[in-house]
Amino acid sequence: MLVVKIGGSQGVALGPICADLGALIQQGQKVVVVHGGSAETNEISARLGHPPRFVTSVSGFTSRYTNRATLEIFAMVTNGRINTLLVEQLQKFGVNAFGLSGVDGRLMMAQRKEAIRIVENGRQRMLRDDYTGKIEQVNAALLRLLLEAGLTPVIAPLAISPAGEVVNVDADRAAAMVAGAVQAEQLVILTNVPGLMRNYPDENTLIPHLPRIGLEQALSFAEGRMKKKVLGASEALDLGVSKVIFADGRVEHPVLDALAGKGTVIS
Ligand code: ADP
């Protein structure tokens, strides 16, 4: 079982990724795909006159400030456009892809963070109208049902709260939870850099292999949203995934290269 997370950053091309996935699935590999969409959500929000806002929590993580209007735009972009186009590409490569978000069939259950403490201009304050959540449970039976029917699930990063509210979740951490739930051996996280760099953006400092115990230190040199990927990697390993690979989504064979060990292999 393989879980592949496809980032939404500039340069990541869906064609080569889907071609690789098509080849693997034809050979009998079971795959679950999770995707993001933050870059495109930023662009479309701005075009809709609702520019994105990001907040930094007291623990130093940056996330999208998601009020109800933002949530709806996020859903429109990720579960609408990105998910459909990804399913389309996979179908072109002979994969019977099935698009859904974590809301469908309660695939991903998340606790909504009712209040988050943020730091703004050096001062702390509480945000209360935010619709983001942390995934607590994945409906693995639903994924197994789809896989057994010969379908390849393609998951958009939305989840549902126990109260039935849609929440925005981090796609890297969602991929980690999904990988744990389906007992994947490997989780490949494709993005627009060759892997984790000790001294970003100096590509000569790419870390080819990171032992699990190095993850904590890695949090200190991963900046911005890269921190979420490091956190996701750590969560996936905790859930029994043997290997997490951060790899370049812009190359000719993004998935095959990653499986061959190119990028940052965390195990
Ligand atoms: P995606 O949309 O693919 O999930 P993100 O933009 O969220 O990707 O995260 C990947 C980005 O993280 C890279 O484009 C890079 O700018 C940034 N980054 C920050 N610190 C590092 C680091 N130490 N090594 C590699 N990339 C880093």
Offer a quick outline of the entry.
The protein has 267 residues and is of the alpha/beta class. It has eight helices and 16 strands.
Structure description:
The chain is of the alpha/beta class. A hairpin with a 5-residue loop joins strand 11 and strand 12. Helix 2 (38-47) crosses helix 3 (68-92), helix 5 packs parallel to helix 7 and helix 6 (215-221) packs antiparallel against helix 7. The longest helix is centred in the N-terminal third of the chain and has 25 residues, at 68-92. The chain has one domain (2-266): 3-Layer(aba) Sandwich (Carbamate kinase). The chain has helices at residues 14-26, 38-47, 68-92, 140-148, 171-181, 215-221, 226-238, 254-259; strands at residues 2-6, 31-35, 54-57, 62-64, 97-101, 108-112, 116-120, 123-127, 133-138, 152-156, 158-160, 166-168, 186-191, 209-210, 243-248, 264-266. It has an 8-stranded mixed β-sheet with strand order 5-10-2-1-13-15-16-14, with helices on both faces. A 4-stranded antiparallel β-sheet has the order 4-3-7-8, with no helix packed on it. A two-stranded antiparallel ribbon has the order 6-9. It is built from 8 helices and 16 strands. Adenosine-5'-diphosphate (ADP) binds next to helix 2.
**Could you say what the CATH topology is called?**
Carbamate kinase
CATH superfamily: Acetylglutamate kinase-like
- Fraction of residues in β-strands: 25-35%
What's the N-to-C terminus distance? 16 Å
> How many beta-strand elements?
16
Detail the poorly predicted runs: none
